[in-house]
Each structure stands twice: as C-alpha cells, then as structure tokens.
Amino acid sequence: MTEAVSAAWQRVEAVPQRTLKELFASDPGRVTRLSQRLEWGEGEIAGGIRFDWSKTHLDEDLLAAFEALAEARGFAAQRAALLGGEKINVTEGRAAEHTAQRGVGSEAAVEEAAALHARMKLLVEAIHEGALGPVKHLIHIGIGGSALGPAMAVDALTRDLALVDVHVVSNIDGLALEQAFAACDPATTLIAVASKTFTTIETMTNAASALNWLRDNGVSDPSGRVVALTASPEKAVEWGVDETRVLPFPESVGGRYSLWSSIGFPVALAVGWDEFEAMLAGARMVDEHFRDTDGRDNLCLRAAFADQYYTSVRGCQTRAVFAYDERLALLPDYLQQLEMESNGKRVTADQRPVSGPTAPITWGGVGTDAQHAVFQLLHQGTNLVPIDFIASVAPGDALDPAHHRILLTNCFAQGAALMAGDAGEDPARHFPGDRPSATMLCDDLNAAALGALVAFHEHRTFANAVLLGINPFDQFGVELGKRMAKDMEAGGGDFDASTRALLEAAGLG
Ligand code: F6P
C-alpha cells in the first residue's frame, strides 16, 4: 500500500461517525445531493433510474476522503485502462473488454463485438423465421457466468411474452436436466451449449445427455439442433457443432461479464433482437456515465464508497439486495457471482496480502416475501447489514393497482423504518434504527433498465476492486475444489480420513 493510499484510508477512518438522523437534520439538501437519475432515450423509449444513496452514512467528509482514496489508487487511470482494452487482468495477462460488447471500449474490440453480434443476430433471426424448422423450446446449458446472466435476463424480460420458451440448466445433478426435458418437446427443441472454455465438466456432461435425449426421442441429427456459445470455437467444432451454429465471443470477455456477448443468445431468442439491443443500450448509457463522470458524481464509484465504508470501517460482513419486483427474483444470484467471484480475494493485484476485508457476502431476495422471513434480523439483529432496494415505478402486473401500490409502499417503508428505528415499549420492541439502505427506482423495468442495472453493478464491482487494490477479473479460488473432484472422479488423489469415509459411505470408495 502506498503512503498516499494509507493516508487516504486513515482519513476515511478518522471521519466522525454521525447517525443518519443527524445527517438528514444537518443538511436539508441531502436527498438532492445524494440522489441522481440516469436517463436514456427519447419519446416512447425514454427511461431512467433514480439512484438514492441518501440513507447511507456518506457525508461530505466521507465523500471527500473516499475521493482522495480513489485518487491515491489511480482510479481514473485504471478506468482508462479497463475501457482502453489494456491487460488489467494481470494474473492472467488479459484485458477485460465486456463494455466493448455494448459499444464502449477500444476501437478494435468494439468492431470485433459488432461483427460477432451481427453474426448472432443473423442466426437468431433465421431461427425466428423457421430456418431450423419450428423452434418452440431452447434448453440453454451452461454454468456460472454462462448461465446466471441468461437465466436472470430471460426471467426478467419474458413475463409477458416469450418468442421461445427457454430453460436454463446448470447443475450436474441430472434432476435439473430431466426437469427441462419434461417441459420440452424434443422435435421443437434447440440446445444451446454455453461455455467460455468449452471444457467445464457440468456443461459438457449435460450437453452430451441432452443430445442423447434428442436421439432417443427420434431426432435423427441431434448435433444439428445445437448452437454453441463460446470463446473456444475450435473446441465446439471438434465436439461436433457445425461452424455455422457456433457463436464465438472474445477471450477478453470474462465469464461473469458475458451476458452481453453470444452468451446472451437465449435472451435474444426469447425476447427478439431489438429487445436484446435495448438491453445493450441501457448498459452503454451506464458505461458512458462511468467513463465520463468523476468523483462522487460517478454513481458506480459513489456506491463503492458506501460499500467500502460499511465493509472496512463498520465491519459489515454481508450486504443484502432486495428487489421489490418478481422479475428480478434471480438478481441476487447473479450479483453473488459478479461480486463474490470478482472481489472475494485475499491478495492485491501485485500479489501481496490485503490489509483488510475485501468483498462482503452478497445475499438477498424478493420483497415483500423477504420481509416475512429475514427482515427481523435486519431491524433488530446484532449484524449491521447495508441494504439495496430495487423497484420499478411502472408495475409488471396488470391486476388491481393496489398490488403495485402496496409493493412500493412496503419497499419505501422498510428503508424508512430501518433508518428511523423506534423507541418501543420495552427492549424486545425497541428498534435501534440508523440502519443504512440505498434505493434504485426504475421508471419501468424494461430491457434498457435491466441492462443499466447490471452494468451499474459491474462498474460498482470494478470500482470496489480499485479502491481495494485487487484484481477483480481472475477467479483462481474455484480451481482447487475442481481439481480435487477430478482426481476423485478418476479414483485417484490423496484425501483426508473424513473424505475417504464419505466416499466409502456413498459406495464410491
Ligand atoms: O468455476 C468458475 C467458472 O470458471 C466461472 O468463472 C465461469 O463463469 C464458469 O466457471 C463457467 O465456465 P465456462 O463458461 O468456461 O464453462
């Protein structure tokens, strides 16, 4: 850690702790100062999201101290390196060019992305036009970053209508695949095999079983029903997928950042190309904001300031996200991988031990359900948990407007209650209050808003990594377990007594 960085951290830590009530009382302009809308489009496609960080403990002193930390960490240069396609994933010697998929990045990467998208669009539209015969179902097989984004986006955007019925299967547990088979007609089903490396054991095993299922159910040319989404196109061809149905994406797009690439194929197939492009456009709007805005006005950086404050200064070990919207039911799962696989690290980018906590545990759920399950702890438990609320002004349902009104009032009431607290008649009924939350309020939860929300979280994750001095783009922590499972599967490996006994008990010893 450089002297400037450690001085900046000391400055952050020295800021006097004031309660949220005090912060609101002393600054009538607080809501305006700490709420901001990002907007896009005009006329019918106009939209926006209000980001309200006023119910966090960020104040003028903290914002200034964190701005000094960002400067000491070289935030502007790191951002330029990210967007300029430099090899900022230093441990793997790679760039991280997911924003180029949305049109923001080095000229070469943006051009390559446009060419690959054009190829993907042709295939999506050809399928819609019947080039592969009637296609009613898609079984999308992938795991981690090759599944969580597509699953979340398809779930969010197809509540009204899906052009193709998509089933995302990730788990090696055969039950997951059997469930998809039960819901699909083999004669009208396509299989998408999504894997950056095209080697992941879960995906390749599931893909082989899906082909067998097609064959066993009368499909004469099962591999003719497969589309491959991968950064290793040669492996897909070797595996038997015809080149015309291989949709490549660049190696420099990380798995958990790959929704925007051909990994988003099921989204485009389900909602149509225009909607997929609207999702990219929403993300691009956030990219531009992130690229062109400095200091606290950069919403992704501002959110990271609050994240760092709660984790490093207040010792919060988790952060929670509650979407008051059924369409975002899978968002917490998606964010878990994005944030925990990116920033769950114990060494800095130059491979020295970190001096404090890195990523908190991300968890969450859907409101109002979560209120009746986990909010007790959030209001009165001994853990301080910073919370994000996400909601949409426009309803996703067409029922009595009372539904949406009650949904929104509950969302806003929770934030207010967590902050206000209540004296109560006795200690059991006492609410300490002063519990922080942030709110993201979309005009409408359409494809553009979803793209914007996801890109916001990507850049927030990156901003946190920069403030911590870590590399968010590698994930070596997943390797050891994979290696040991492989050894075990092959009947080798030198395992401890407990593990040997478990193998024995399962009849695998
Ligand atoms: O095991 C973790 C991981 O490497 C993730 O980072 C990735 O998203 C996932 O596995 C799937 O990898 P692939 O797309 O190569 O199958």
From TrEMBL:
Q: What is its main location?
A: cytoplasm
Enzyme Commission (EC) number: 5.3.1.9
Q: InterPro entries given for it?
A: G6P_Isomerase, G6P_Isomerase_C, Phosphoglucose_isomerase_CS, SIS_dom_sf, SIS_PGI_1, SIS_PGI_2
Active site residues per record: E341, H372, K482
Gene Ontology molecular function, alphabetical: carbohydrate derivative binding; glucose-6-phosphate isomerase activity; monosaccharide binding
Q: Recite the UniProt keywords alphabetically.
A: Cytoplasm, Gluconeogenesis, Glycolysis, Isomerase
- At the top of the EC hierarchy, this enzyme's class is isomerase
Gene Ontology CC: one annotated term? cytosol
The pathway that the record names for this protein is: Carbohydrate degradation; glycolysis; D-glyceraldehyde 3-phosphate and glycerone phosphate from D-glucose: step 2/4; Carbohydrate biosynthesis; gluconeogenesis
Catalyzed reaction equations = alpha-D-glucose 6-phosphate = beta-D-fructose 6-phosphate
Is this entry keyworded Transferase? no
Q: Write out the annotated subcellular location.
A: Cytoplasm
| Biological process per Gene Ontology, one example term | glucose 6-phosphate metabolic process
This protein's source sits in the domain of life called Bacteria
**What's the stated role of this polypeptide?**
Catalyzes the reversible isomerization of glucose-6-phosphate to fructose-6-phosphate.
Family per record = Belongs to the GPI family.
Question: By what name is this protein known?
Answer: Glucose-6-phosphate isomerase
This protein's encoding gene? pgi
